[in-house]
Amino acid sequence: MSQEQAIAATTKLSGRATSLMANEFLTFRLSGEEYGIEILKVQEIRGYDSVTQIANAPEFIKGVVNLRGIIVPIIDMRIKFRLGNADYDQFTVVIILNVAGRIMGIVVDGVSDVLTLEAEQMRPTPGFGSVIDTEYIMGLGTVDERMLILIDIEKLMGSSDMGLIEQSIN
Amino acid sequence: MSTDLEQFYEIFFEESSELLADMETCLLRLDVNSPDLEDLNAIFRAAHSIKGGAGTFGFTDMTEMTHMLESLLDKLRKGELEVRSEMIDAFLKAGDVIKAQLAGHRGEGQADPIVAAAVCEELKRLSDETQAPTKELTNPATNTEIVQVEAKVAEVEVSTIDDSSRLTYRIEFSGSGMSDATLENLFANLKQLGNLESLTPANVIDLCKLKLTTDKSEEDIWETLAFVVDPATLIIVVDSLNKNEATAIEPDKTNSVSIDAKSIVDEDEFSMTDMPPAPGYGFFPGAPAAPKDIDDAESSLNSPQQLSANNSKNEANATLNKSSSKANTGAAAPVSETSSIRVSIEKVDQMINLVGELVITQAMLAQTASQFDPVVFEKLHSGMNQLERNTRDLQESVMSIRMMPISFVFSRYPRVVRDLASKLNKRVELKTVGENTELDKGLIEKIADPLTHLVRNSLDHGIEVPEKRTAAGKPAQGTITLRAFHQGGSIVIEVSDDGAGLNRGKILSKARERGLPVHDGMTDQEVWLLIFEAGFSTADTVTDVSGRGVGMDVVKRNIQGMGGRIDIESAFGVGTRISIRLPLTLAILDGLSVAVGGQMFIVPLNYIIESLQPTAADIKTVSGHGRVVQVRGEYLPVIALHEIFNLRPNVTEVHEGILVILEAEGHKAALFVDDLVGQHQVVIKSLESNYRRVQGVSGATIMGDGKVALILDTAALIMTSQQEAV
Question: In angstroms, rounded to a whole number, what is the distance separating the alpha carbons of residues A51 and A60?
Answer without folding.
Answer: 13
